[in-house]
Amino acid sequence: MKMRFEFPQDRPAASPQRGAAPVGQLHELPAVDLAAIIYLRAWCDGESARQIIAEDFRLVMGERAGKAAAGDFDALMSSFLRNARRPVMRHGMGCKCFGGDESVFASLIASAAARDRDDAALFASTLINASAVYGIVYLAEQVGQAFLHLARSASKVQAPTHVSPALHYKH
Are 77 and 88 within 8 A, CB to CB? Predict the structure, then answer.
């Protein structure tokens, strides 16, 4: 019996980096999903980036709420990565596309922000050990609310109508 479909003989071997394959472009994402991916990437870059994340939360949310949001995000990331069934893949900070694992993380945060715990749990369960899913969903709800706050604040910032060549912004 002959197979109906034949696979090409020169196909590449399965990638050892499952979850890194590009699935979209960052500019396509709503604000909460975009924030989730950017902050995931930044948090994974190390302590100096984590301090910038904490400062972002404090600037937008105030000292007390910002500190709480930064703590919630740290707890979420630590738990998420510690309880992942395999290494979570991410693209670099400057990359304009996003991968499958980043998409799942963003969907988890966006669902949790919308208080849709069932969808959030389904997204979490694709990457996380079952015993940790509900704890992660709880943290994702807290972080999702903070990301909603960041997104609303960003939409209120008006773009300048002109740019003075004398202005230089530090990143």
Answer: no
Classify residue 75 by burial, with Cβ atoms within 10 Å: 0-12, 13-18, 19+. middle
- Three-state DSSP class for 155? helix
CA distance 125 to 137: 10
1-50: pLDDT as tens digits:
566 677 667 766 655 578 989 999 999 999 999 999 999 999 999 999 99
- pLDDT digit string (tens) for 29-41? 999 999 999 999 9
- For helices 117-125 and 100-113, the axis angle rounded to 10 degrees is 160
Taking alpha carbons only, the member of 81, 86, 82 closest to residue 41 is 81
| 24 bridge partner residues | 98
Distance, first Cα to last Cα, the chain: 63
Q: What confidence tens digit (pLDDT) does each residue in 106-162 have?
A: 999 999 999 999 999 999 999 999 999 999 999 999 999 999 999 888 766 544 444
Classify residue 138 as left (phi > 0), alpha (psi -120 to 50) or beta: alpha
